[in-house]
Design a protein that fits this description.
Chain lengths: 283, 330
């Protein structure tokens, strides 16, 4: 692989991290496998696209994507998931139903064409880096991914909310018994995770473009990341994203038709030794 | 709760009355006879729909033997079903093989895929199992979409499948009915066999089965592979029914629809799968005649069933009936 492909892998990994970290946070703390996460990504992308096109501002598009998807997350958690709390499998299957509805509604509203979110002028064009000419926007995605990783690490390890989330991942009953309203922490995490999916949608929509099956594709990548990394661990998500990002790029270069196998092979080997992922812990 | 609660099956101990067995046989014969007589009273379109219901009933039942009896909810069965359908269509249309050989190849491919999948999946349970089966199914979907030389990509594969006797829609229906009946009987025998009992033991307590000396992973592996074999049979039938396969045949929606049918019928009821298949496909036909938004309707149905009737129609009916019986007794 040359520098160009390595950068492609790294920028894709950064996008995956943003999307999958939300998925993993919700999975780790709330024990909810939110299969609507891909649909939230797509919804964020479409909303961000529409706002960015009409207002001419990428930043406004981002804000709209985050707010809209957080609102969707709120409706999903408070409107539907509350009826099936504590039943893991019913929760998962319910979010699957939501994913179908959201995907179909997106098709009604935005149609089957593929869209690309407009990039701000400052990020257009390319720069010379490691001896290759590389698009500025993808470097922006890489930097944003790293910044979000740092911000989430600080949030989890340096703030009270982070301490509550980490404690909740380990033992929600004990947190509740010590007088904390764990439900609010859960809701906050759900909104944060959804917002990350929405923001990922906008960011990815500018270089992967948005089309009706993009939600399923990003979902399978997120699943692979979380299966490899283990749930509820940010470092696990980061490692998983890098692995999946590089393997995917490698696969596309070497076996374009069987790129999925290239991710799948290592995942299988890993599962044979660590069924709960690299950094996953049994609960 | 990490598994969908199976409906408490009626006691399956040795029958004390020979009459009970005779009655069961009579009921089964009656159901089969009325199903066999169905084509005489229905239009060609309706016979086609009934054929589709039987095929999906077999798929849903293959999901139910895992979900209801081994406590493993799979979302890879649509892909296993689709692999069989792809292989059958490819063998007939591109390799020019006779249909019977194509069916054998298709079912073998599906069984092999299921065996491969189960190697990865059986070490996990609950939500992790579901996640891994989704990922596996999506990989199949990705391959069907991208490997255009073989699978035809988004255009899919079309074959002239219904030749000779199969061309007639009534004959085809009867053939599907026979296969579905045999497959259902085999699956029913399978879950009631001593081996099936060990699967139920694993569902109820994996650690206890392990300490009793059972090789839990091996049993789940066999269970999954057998279930994949039946999903493959359904897929092969579907190839002849539809004469066309595309990535949407192996998509997650296919697995979801199969699982929804199994759940609607009632997880662990086995024959409820056909009730579920009937209910969902009827709904699909009604909805499709009003709007193109079938996918939304499917999603909404899924959400509603998860919230209001996770035990399925058969389970719900049983609960209502027993409540009614208790009510009248009081």
């Amino acid at each position: 692989m040359n520098a160009f492909q390595l950068l492609n892998g790294a920028t894709f990994a950064a996008l995956l991290f943003v999307v999958a970290s939300g998925f993993s946070l919700i999975f780790g703390l709330l024990r909810i496998v939110n299969l609507a996460h891909g649909a939230l990504y797509l919804a964020g992308g479409y909303v961000g696209f529409t706002v960015a096109v009409h207002s001419g501002s990428y930043v406004l598009g981002g804000a709209a994507a985050i707010l809209a998807v957080a609102a969707l997350g709120f409706a999903l958690d408070q409107g539907l998931l509350r009826f099936v709390r504590g039943h893991e499998l019913r929760e998962v299957l319910l979010t699957l139903g939501v994913a179908f509805v959201l995907n179909d509604m997106a098709l009604v509203i935005w149609g089957g064409d593929s869209f690309t979110v407009p990039i701000p002028d400052a990020l257009k064009g390319g720069v010379r880096i490691f001896g290759v000419f590389y698009p500025k926007y993808r470097l922006f995605v890489l930097v944003t991914g790293i910044l979000i990783f740092i911000a989430l690490m600080l949030l989890l390890h340096r703030t009270r909310l982070g301490a509550l989330i980490r404690a909740g991942v380990d033992d929600p009953e004990m947190v509740e018994a010590s007088g904390i309203n764990i439900r609010r922490v859960f809701l906050g995490t759900f909104l944060l995770g959804s917002a990350l999916a929405g923001f990922g949608g906008l960011m990815g929509g500018a270089f992967l473009s948005l089309y009706p099956s993009a939600d399923a594709e990003i979902l399978v990548f997120s699943l692979a990341v979380v299966i490899i990394g283990g749930r509820g661990s940010l470092v696990g998500v980061a490692i998983g994203s890098l692995l999946v990002g590089f393997l995917n790029t490698l696969g596309q270069v070497m076996f374009p038709e069987l790129a999925y196998f290239v991710i799948f092979g290592p995942m299988v080997c890993l599962l044979a030794f660590r069924p709960l992922g690299l950094l996953g812990r049994a609960t | 709760m990490t598994t969908l609660e199976p409906i408490a099956a009626p006691a399956t101990g040795p029958r004390t009355f020979a009459g009970a067995r005779a009655r069961t046989i009579a009921i089964v014969a009656l159901v089969l006879a009325s199903l066999a007589a169905l084509p005489f009273g229905l239009s060609k379109y309706q016979v086609g729909l009934a054929t589709e219901m039987l095929i999906y009933g077999v798929l849903a039942m293959s999901i139910d033997i895992l979900a209801g009896f081994a406590g493993r909810t799979s979302l890879a069965h649509g892909a296993i079903f689709g692999i069989s359908a792809y292989v059958v269509v490819y063998a007939v249309s591109h390799l020019g093989l006779p249909p019977a050989v194509a069916v054998v190849l298709g079912v073998m491919a599906a069984t092999a895929a299921a065996a491969l999948f189960s190697l990865v999946a059986v070490r996990t349970s609950g939500v992790y199992f579901l996640l891994i089966t989704i990922a596996l199914g999506m990989i199949v979907w990705g391959i069907c979409l991208r490997w255009t030389d073989v699978t035809g990509g988004e255009n899919g594969l079309r074959g002239d499948m219904r030749v000779g006797l199969l061309r007639d829609h009534q004959t085809f229906y009867w053939m599907v009915l026979v296969v579905a009946a045999l497959a259902s009987f085999a699956m029913w025998r399978f879950v009631r066999s001593p081996f099936g009992l060990t699967l139920r033991g694993i569902r109820d307590s994996e650690s206890r089965m392990r300490s009793l000396g059972y090789n839990v992973h091996l049993h789940l592996f066999i269970g999954f592979t057998v279930s994949g074999f039946f999903a493959g049979i359904a897929g092969a039938l579907y190839a002849f029914f539809n004469s066309f396969v595309s990535p949407s045949t192996v998509a997650l929606a296919q697995s979801v629809q199969g699982l929804l049918m199994a759940i609607t019928g009632g997880i662990g009821t086995l024959f409820g799968s056909f009730v579920g298949s009937f209910a969902i496909l009827t709904l699909q036909n009604v909805v499709s005649s009003y709007t193109e938004r079938w996918q939304t309707a499917l999603g909404v149905t899924f959400i509603l069933i998860m919230i209001f009737a996770p035990e399925g129609l058969v389970g719900k009916l049983r609960a209502l009936l027993s409540r009614g019986a208790r009510g009248s007794a009081n």
